[in-house]
Design a protein that fits this description.
The complex is a heterodimer of chains A (285) and B (265). Chain A has helices at residues 49-55, 84-90, 102-105, 112-123, 130-142, 148-153, 161-174, 191-208, 219-225, 243-248, 253-260, 275-284, and strands spanning 7-18, 21-33, 38-43, 66-74, 77-78, 95-98, 179-183, 211-215, 228-233, 236-242. Chain A has 285 residues and is of the alpha/beta class. The model of chain A has no long low-confidence stretch (mean pLDDT 94). Chain B is α/β, with parallel strands linked by helices and 265 residues long. In chain B, the strands form two sheets. Chain B has a six-stranded mixed sheet with strand order 6-7-8-3-9-10, with helices on both faces. Chain B has a four-stranded antiparallel sheet with strand order 2-1-4-5, with helices on one face. The longest helix of chain B is centred in the C-terminal third of the chain and has 18 residues, at 191-208. Classes of the chains: A alpha/beta (285), B alpha/beta (265). The structure holds adenosine-5'-triphosphate (2 copies) and magnesium ion (2 copies).
């Protein structure tokens, strides 16, 4: 795509400081996200995927406990170093998040319906009165929740893990963001609903040109929905490129190992192979 | 006597909740989270539990560890009903049955460091253990799940999602239970770490005879680890059998829909 990127990330780094010692959680992260593009981020647990995504709008502890370096340009505007009041305006409306752990981002003392209604009212002032409740229920229905009215009346702890995850997706989408950061959005969902959610996201990028940064461990989802993929290991990007190329001809040994370890149905093995097993085998071959 | 009773047997379990939004005067149908579920888990075996989001999998698991109210039905441990015991009388079973929670963050005390989180069950169930021994045991547990023992003084928020999930697994393993209810234990892990955790669970089963009720959405992992598979939809088990049969030749329409939705690539 030749169009100007919506999001231009250069050399993004995150360092935590605790007990006088620095830990570099991620560094040198560089990518462009075009309007309507789905960029998948895969890689090791603890490799800095979530932290790099949270750094875009600095949803991280304040300095000096945490330092963010590099550059994040959103439609030409630099976000790194922007004061908190300005960043607060970017979150939700321009960059919305589906957090990895849905329980942490919902307020336990308000109903789901109340919280989604707040998001609707804040971002779509044209929706008023009884239409707010209708919009809330429609948004819960769109993410495949069987009883939208009951879910709206529920407190977070009264929903199942996957219902809560979908309620959070509904809330993020209610903000009609330009960029959606979806951090493991389908981990608590069965494959049928997972498919429905991914189709919904694909439609929104088509219809609204919403761009999606999709963090996931699920290669099936990467292969079926993303345009490009970025592979992270130990705080760094080790490989990036179009999904079809990376999946069929991975260049980095880490990527090759990861793809070799994907468990598949109908393939009865005594043990599941780990990266170490894969590396040992390829060294012997 | 006939055959010995299985380690765990669940008979016609129902868990109903009051409908949210219903008031004192507005009588409403309850939410039938679990609506008549029966199955058993033999000692040293793994029963996989899959199904629709919201179908009652977590509630079933929570009822077994006494964290969800049993409306009716029986939960039998080696033939003895433990579903109706008082919390006090249940205490000996707290050590025998552990749970790995679906939401790792919500289940770890944010104010405790990892050493304190892993020590707590040891202090309750092995009061004679010395401080140094407890610390050594925690280090060993962290290593087993692929985390660094040096990080045991950190708090839950200083870890990634998948690292927190592994802390939850380490905590469940700490007291060497006989049954672990694993609720989505590997959903936040990359395929390699997932493989090593699944291998670890299988090794412990071989060595110590632990049984698992393994709730997961990844059908390939369920097929791999389970001896028997249950499929739930809307509060009931719609189909159960060997993993080869359930995932190879399912008969219930819901199971077929589920298999059809597995992403191909
Ligand atoms: N608040 C914090 N303080 C200190 N270290 C942290 C903090 N948050 C994260 N880390 C560390 O930063 C590293 C990267 O974490 P991050 O959450 O980005 O991993 P991830 O790639 O999202 O992993 P996962 O797939 O397990 O979610 C991890 O090693 C983690 O322990
Ligand atoms: N404390 C509660 N109060 C009221 N309803 C509840 C409560 N806990 C669970 N429910 C309802 O019970 C049903 C089953 O929830 P459960 O968490 O057991 O589902 P699940 O199969 O684990 O789903 P998932 O795969 O999404 O985690 C849901 O409709 C949920 O809203
Ligand atoms: Mg993460
Ligand atoms: Mg659940």
């Amino acid at each position: 795509m030749a169009s100007e990127p919506l999001l231009r990330v250069r050399d993004l780094g995150v360092t935590f400081r605790s007990g006088g010692a620095d830990t570099v959680a991620s560094s040198g992260v560089t990518y462009d996200l075009a309007p309507g593009e789905i960029l998948a981020v895969v890689g090791e647990s603890g490799s800095g995927k979530s932290v790099s995504a949270l750094a875009l709008t600095r949803l991280l502890p304040a300095a000096p406990a945490c330092r963010v370096t590099g550059s994040v340009l959103l439609e030409g505007e630099e976000l790194v170093g922007l004061p908190e009041e300005r960043l607060a305006k970017v979150r939700g409306k321009r960059i919305a998040y589906i957090f990895q752990e849905p329980g942490t981002s919902m307020n336990p003392v308000y109903t789901i319906g109340f919280q989604i209604a707040e998001a609707v009212k804040a971002h779509r002032p044209e929706v008023t009165g009884a239409d707010v409740r209708r919009t809330v229920e429609a948004s819960l229905d769109a993410v495949g929740i069987r009883e939208p009215a009951r879910a709206a009346d529920s407190y977070p702890h009264e929903l199942s893990g996957g219902m809560l995850q979908r309620a959070m997706i509904a809330m993020a989408l209610a903000c009609e963001p330009k960029v959606l950061v979806a951090d493991e959005p389908t981990t608590a969902l069965d494959v049928t609903i997972q498919k429905q959610i991914m189709e919904l996201l694909a439609r929104l990028r088509r219809e609204r040109g919403m761009s999606i940064l999709l963090i996931t461990h699920n290669f099936g989802i990467v292969a079926n929905t993303a345009d490009n993929v970025l592979v992270m290991s130990q705080g760094r990007v080790v490989e990036q490129g179009p999904v079809a190329r990376v999946m069929s001809a991975p260049e980095h040994p880490y990527t090759r190992g990861l793809i070799a370890c994907i468990p598949r149905l109908g393939q009865r093995r005594r043990r599941l192979p780990t990266l170490e097993d894969h590396l040992r085998e390829s060294a012997q071959a | 006597m006939n055959a010995p009773a299985p380690l765990l047997e669940v008979r016609d379990l129902k868990v109903h909740y009051p409908r949210p939004g219903a008031g004192w005067f507005r009588k409403a149908e309850p939410v039938r989270a679990v609506d008549g579920v029966s199955f058993s888990v033999p000692r040293g075996r793994t029963v996989g539990l899959v199904g629709e989001s919201g179908s009652g999998k977590t509630t079933t698991g929570r009822a077994i560890v006494k964290l969800a109210p049993v409306t009716s039905g029986e939960i039998l441990w080696e033939g003895r009903d433990i579903g109706r015991l008082s919390s006090r009388a249940f205490l000996p079973w707290r050590k025998k049955v552990q749970m790995v929670f679906q939401d790792p963050y919500g289940s770890l005390n944010p104010r405790s460091d990892i050493l304190a989180i892993l020590s707590e069950p040891l202090e309750i169930h092995f009061p004679e253990m010395s401080r140094a021994d407890r610390e050594a045991r925690c280090a060993e547990l962290l290593r087993k799940v692929g985390l660094k023992p040096e990080q045991m003084r950190r708090h839950p928020h200083e870890f990634s999602g998948g690292q927190r999930q592994r802390i939850g697994i380490a905590r469940a393993l700490a007291v060497q239970p006989e049954l672990i209810v694993c609720d989505e234990p590997v959903s936040a892990l990359d395929v390699s770490v997932q493989a090593s955790v699944v291998n670890l669970l299988q090794d412990l089963q071989e060595e110590l005879g632990v049984a698992y009720l393994f709730i997961a959405h990844d059908l390939a992992v369920v097929e791999h680890i389970s001896h028997h598979v249950l499929v739930m939809e809307k509060g009931v088990v719609v189909e159960q059998g060997s993993p080869e049969r359930i995932l190879g030749a399912p008969t219930h329409p819901y199971t077929r829909t589920l298999l059809d939705a597995v992403p191909r690539f």
